[in-house]
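Possible regression after last week's pipeline update?

I re-ran a chain I had predicted before the update to compare outputs. Posting the input and the new output here so someone can diff against the archived version. Not blocking, just want to make sure nothing changed silently.
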Amino acid sequence: MLGKKPVLFAIIILIFLVSACSTRPTQSTPTLAPIPTQTPARLPLLEAEVSRVTVQEAKAALDSGTAVLVDVRSAEAFEVSHIAGAINIPLGEIETNPTGLELDKDRWIITYCT
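New output (post-update):
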């Protein structure tokens, strides 16, 4: 079983990937949570630091059962079309309670929005 650091790393990556897919209109004065000055085990703080995966890597991980694919679009968009095997957790739900998601933290969590 994985320790706390890989789970925290997976959650932070999930948050950063999901935030890149946000479709909310921009605000003139955005409200952002403060970014800590130190992170455990050098977790990514910037979107550019978040690992990207190829379609082939994601498919292989999904097919082997080592990953879960999370579609962060609305339930309506998910219903129209989605990647086979993906689950739907809308972005707003992730932003509201990122640590309370019912995801297997021992699996690689791959998010997508298009």
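Follow-up from reviewer: compared with the archived run. Confidence is low (pLDDT under 50) at residues 25-30, 33-41. Marking as no regression found.
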